[in-house]
Structure formats: C-alpha cells, structure tokens
Amino acid sequence: MEKIKLEGVTKVFGNHPKKSFAKYKQGMTRDEFKEKTGHTLGVLDASFSIHEGEKLVVMGLSGSGKSTLLRCINRLFEPTAGKVIIDGIDVTALEAEELRLLRQKKFGMVFQRFALLPHRTVLKNTEFGLEVQNIDAAVREEKAREALELVGLKGWEDSYPNQLSGGMQQRVGLARALAVDPDILLMDEAFSALDPLIRTEMQDELLSLESKVNKTILFITHDLDEALKIGDRIVMMKDGRIVQIGTPEEILMSPATEYVERFVENVDMTKVLTAKDVMVKPVSISYPKDGPRTALHRMKERGISSIFVVDNERKLKGIVLAENAKECVEGSAKDFDSVIEKIDVMKVQPDAPLQDILPKIADIRYPIAVVDDGEKLLGVIVRGSVIAGLAERGSIQ
Amino acid sequence: MITIPKFPLGEGIEYGINYLTDNFAFITKAVSAVVETGIEGLNQGLMYISSFSPLILIAVITVLAWLVSTRRIAIGSFLGLLFIWNLGLWEATVSTFSLVLISTLISVMMGLPLGILAAFYERFYKVVMPVLDFMQTMPAFVYLIPAIPFFGLGPVSAVFTTVIFSMPPAIRLTCLGIRQVPFDLIEAADAFGASRMQKLYKIQLPVATPTIMAGVNQTIMLALSMVVIAAMIGAGGLGGEVWRAIQRLKPGMGFEAGIAVVIMAIILDRITQNIKSKQ
User: Fold this and answer.
1) Helix (H), strand (E) counts: chain A
2) Chain A partners within 8 Å of B194 (Cβ)
3) Would the CB atoms of B207 and A76 count as touching at under 8 Å?
4) Contact (CB<8Å) A101/B195
5) Which of A92, A151, B222, B236 could form a disulfide with A171 if both were Cys (CB 3.0 to 4.6 A apart)?
6) Could B193 and A118 be called an inter-chain contact, meaning their C-beta atoms sit closer than 8 Å?
7) Is A28:A71 a contact under the CB 8 Å cutoff?
8) Looking at chain B, which residue has its C-alpha nearest residue A73?
9) pLDDT exceeds 60 at position A395
10) A131: closest CA of chain B, how far (Å)
C-alpha cells in the first residue's frame, strides 16, 4: 500500500521562492537558475511513492537536496511547489495546527547531530515526543522505558546525554522517535556522525528493529554502502534532482546515469552480493535411494571430487568424497553410510552476505552448502562460482 | 558673524518630563505606593528579624549559599557578614540589600519577557538594542534627576533609576541565550509537533538558562552599584554612609562602608554565579 506519495515536490530557497520558481524553465541547471533569479534550487520536481513498511533510502552527495527533500515531507521546509500525500491526506494543504498534530502522530525523526536536550536525562529526552502530546506522565514513562529497552539502553535512563558516547546518544535519538510509535521514521543521515564500527552496528540494529516494529522508513545518507544495506529501494539524487530510483540490484547492475555509475564503481561487491547470488545448482545424490555407484558416476560426469547427499525431502545429510565412494564400490569400506561426512559440511543461509563467506571459503575442503530454514539444499558455493559471480557484475578487486 | 541658536534639547526634555509629571502623576504615585510598600515591608521585616540578632540572617544566608553553591562560598559569606556586623553597618547593609533585591526583581520581571520578545521578533530586537545601548552609556547620575519629580526623594526613586540602569543585561542575555539555542533542537521540537509555547518552556528557556543566569548576575551587580549612587537622592543604606563620609570628609568611614559594599557584592556574585555552575 502507498504510504507516502510525492508529486513534483520542489523547494526553492530565497526571499521570493514562488515568484522566482515561476521563472524556471525546463532543463535549466541549478547554476543557471541561481544566476537568473538569485534563488537556490533545493529540490526540483521530486515524484515517487513509498510503500507501507518499506525502507527507502535517499542517497546523494552533500548539497544534492536529499535532506531538503526529507524536510519537505513533514514540512519543516515548506515546499515551493508540488504535493506530499500521506495516507491519502494532502500534507501540503494542512493548516499549521493540523500539521502539528499530524507530525505528532505520524512521524518520528532522527537527526544527524542527535539533537538531544542537554538539560534532560535519557528518559526525559525519550519522553519528549509524548510530552508534547500531553500524554499522562505514567503512560509516557512506561512507553519511553519500553523504547529505551528496544534500543538496548536499559539502565541508562537517568544519565545525561553528555555522559553517553555518540552511538549511545543516537540510540536515545532513535528511542525518542520510536516512543511515539509513529508510522513513519524519518532518518536524516542518522548514522553519518558515528565512527565506522558503531555505524555498522547501528545499521544492523536498525534492520533488526525494523523487523520487530515494522515502520515505513525514509533514510537519508551519502554513503552508498549504507544505502545498499538498508534500502529496499534507493532514490539517487544529484543537484536537487532525482536521477534514478530502483532496488539496490537495479542501481548496481544498470546505473541510469554516469553520476550513479561513478558511485557504483567504488562499491565493494562482496558487501552487496549474497550466497544466493553466487551459488550454483547443486549436484547431489539422494540417500538411501542412490548408492556409491550413482555418486561416483555423477561426480565423474561433472568432473567434481565430492558430492552432497540429501534425503528424499532434499534435506542435507552430508557429503561424500570421490575417493571414499570408490572404496565402497571396490568393497574395501564396509558400508556407504559410514563414509558420508556429516559434521564437516559448512552450511549458510541464502541471504548470507558474500563478505562473510569469502574468508571461510579458503579454509575448507568442501564446497559450501546453501540451505534454507528447513535444511533443504538450495545450491552450492565453490571458489569458482564466487569468482564467476563477481566477474559477472564487473567488479573483482 | 552668524550665530546658530542652541538646539533646545534640554528644554525639550524638561518640557517632556514636566508634561509627564503633570499629567501622569497618578501612575507614578501608584507605582510609588506599591514599590514603597514592597521596600518598606522587606526592609522592616529583615530589620525585625535582625532586632533579635543579625546572626539569624547571617545563618540563613550562609545555609543558602551552602545549598545553592559551594561550602567555601558559604564560609566566606559567613565571615564577611560577621565583619559587616562588627563594623556596625548591619542596618545600612540590610537597607541596601532590600533595594537591590526589589530592583533586581523588577528588572528581571521586565527584562525576561522583553528579552524573549526581542529573540523572537527581529523588528522589536532592532528597536530595543539601541535603546539598551542608550540606557547603559548614559551616565547613571543623570537618571537621578527625572526620578525626583516622578517619585520624590527616597527609595522609590532609587529603585526607578536602578531598574533603568540594571535591566539591559537581563534583556540582552535572555535574548542572546534564546537565540543561541542550537537550531537542530528547535527543529527536533518542530518535528515532534511541539507548539510555540512548548518549545519556549521545554527547550529554549531551559537551554538558555545558564546565559540568562549570567544576565541576572550582571543585573544584580549593576543594581548594587546604582543603589549606592542613588544615595544622592536619599536612598540611604551603605551608599548613604558613603555619601555622609564624603560630606564630612571622613575617609575611614567612607572606606568602611565601601568595604561592606564590596563584601556584599562578592557574596551576591559568587552565589548567583554558582547556581548555574552547579547545574
């Protein structure tokens, strides 16, 4: 379902934005517009929708208008033209008081520089959004405590923001936004001020949180890795314009403009690709239906030295090496079951990122099995398939 | 030779002041009555307590100093006040203290809202700031003169001039404090749907408090210095002692009263300064 819809949202900064925007002509660049009117074009003609529960990332360099666009959505900046529609309500047409109530109910916002109140404790900071709504003190304390627990800050309620590290302060920022239980989270470069390690941790936390609370998230960032990790879809912006909208895959595989391409070429593909992107169709035998002869035959056919063994429901049982199967056939080993390697098989889920798999692939003797939640064998990862997967996407570094 | 006639600035001002005293005496009389009652009430109350023993008040101030600031300041205040008592200037000190307290109260009560308005309305700010510059640079004695036709000789005139003289920092620093509140805090408040009043009470004033307190501290200091000068128009107190010492050419007496003023200034300054640093 459509949660937020933007129709031609435009923001011009200056003393007479409307008047100067009337002078805008199709195809004018930002600089030309500035020269002609003395006004700055913040965002031009942004149109897209965000679905309920979707994580949409707006990405671009500083000055690309991404933060401006975000602020147009809750009208912290008044759009010069265009419409913002949330749950069917035209936000741009609301009176000041209606807008205030809408902000209270629909939005939770997280800021780049945290924007915590220095004179309040962590708990009181978290209560802020509820306090503004004049919610009963006992209720808001309870909700604030819940939100703090959700972000892992239980026990820090009575500390002051300046006693916390940057990462923890931003957790407070996140808790403050979650405490009001909004439909939409607006995150303005929320993790950009954090150091890389904390940043990754916060991204993971956001993703796991999101699966628990199911919010529509609009995330602003200038970091493509972050965008790829968080976004269901990514909106690429340049000079106030949207240059491409698509899933991370689409952005990476077919960059719409040179600008997007330049971004994408520096991406470490191992962070983007997952096990299912590089796995190949598994070669396997079904046990006990198939015996050592079948196994040997299939291995010979494919020119491989080991083969996975599954049961009749395709559940992974283990792996058999060619030499062991041969011993069975020749009669030197007792029975087939005993030569099936059961413990040493490495299994990964299909959505495991490639960067986690790569270091392991060098150490193990067998291919890696890709299995689903029910242990069913979906595919196989071997060194060759990883390299092929990376090469296909044009990035081996 | 052409002579340019003198611009009748003084005449104009006098005409204006006369006009005000003739036509608005009811206002000045009402203000006078209220302020006088306040000063007299406070002064007499403090003197009544002191009639048992000044030690009571000294103890109260010491405890207060201990509570709002540090132990060192509390001990310093205790010794300083004992010394003033010993010099025989207790009554004059209480009277000066009453004037300072009432003047500061009025200054802050007027200065705080004016400062808030100046922070919010650019036009008001542009009008108020030059007026404040004028108020602060005009030699303080000059205010004493119109005070007399308005309020007569005595403590009310002293309070009037003191308020004019000591209010600017309260306005200035309130305005500055509010303007200095980081923009992202205001934006956060807006994003969560805070009303204008909620923003003021929950964010702007609390965040600006240290700056506002610095303004209050300056107001108190200026009030103290003006109250001493206002002895010329019959304010009495420690300034009165100094004034008498001047007329009789008794430097010892003058310095005694002067040192009492210094002690009082230090106590008031340290206590109010430490309120904020303790937060």
Assistant:
1) 18, 16
2) 100, 132
3) no
4) no
5) A151
6) no
7) no
8) B191
9) no
10) 9
User: Residue A56: phi, psi to the nearest 5?
Assistant: -110, 130
| ipTM (interface pTM) | 0.76
- Sorting pLDDT into bands at 50, 70 and 90, what band is A285? confident
Q: Which of A132-146, A182-196, B93-107, B134-148 has the lowest mean pLDDT?
A: B134-148
What CA–CA distance (Å, rounded) separates A352 from A347?
A: 10
Range with the poorest average pLDDT among A295-304, B226-235, B258-267: A295-304
Q: Which two tokens stand for residue A167?
A: 């990462």
Q: How many CB atoms lie within 10 A of CB B19?
A: 10
The dihedral region occupied by A214, where left means phi > 0, alpha psi between -120 and 50, and beta the remainder, is left
* String of DSSP letters for A285-323: EETTTS-HHHHHHHHHHHT-SEEEEE-TT-BEEEEEEHH
A-chain residues within 8 Å CB-CB of B206? Answer: 117, 119
Query: Per-residue confidence at B20, pLDDT binned at 50, 70, 90?
Result: confident
So where are chain B's domains? 34-278
Using the predicted structure, report yes or no on whether residue B2 has a pLDDT greater than 80. Answer: no
Give A176→chain B minimum CA distance, Å.
10
Which among A103, A113, A119 has CB closest to B192?
A: A103
Contact A317, A310 (CB under 8 A): yes
Judge whether residue A235 has pLDDT over 90: yes
> In the CATH scheme, what architecture does the domain B34-278 have?
Orthogonal Bundle (1.10)
Instruction: Read off φ and ψ for residue A62, nearest 5 degrees.
Output: -65, 140
Q: Do the chains contact at A129 and B206, CB–CB below 8 Å? A: no
Structural domains of chain A in order of their starting residue, each with its CATH number = 2-269 (3.40.50.300), 275-392 (3.10.580.10)
pTM of this prediction? 0.75
What is the per-residue pLDDT across B128-151, written as a single tens digit (0 to 9) for each?
999 999 988 888 888 888 888 888
Q: Do A113 and B184 touch (CB under 8 A)?
A: yes
Q: Give the Å distances, CA to CA, from B138 to A99, B92, B143, B157, B259.
A: 48, 28, 8, 17, 26
Q: Which residues of A touch B189 (CB under 8 A)?
A: 128, 132
DSSP secondary structure string for all residues of A97-136? HHHHHHHHHHEEEE-TT----TTS-HHHHHHHHHHHTT--
B192 interaction partners in chain A (CB closer than 8 Å): 103-104, 107-109, 128-129, 132, 176, 180
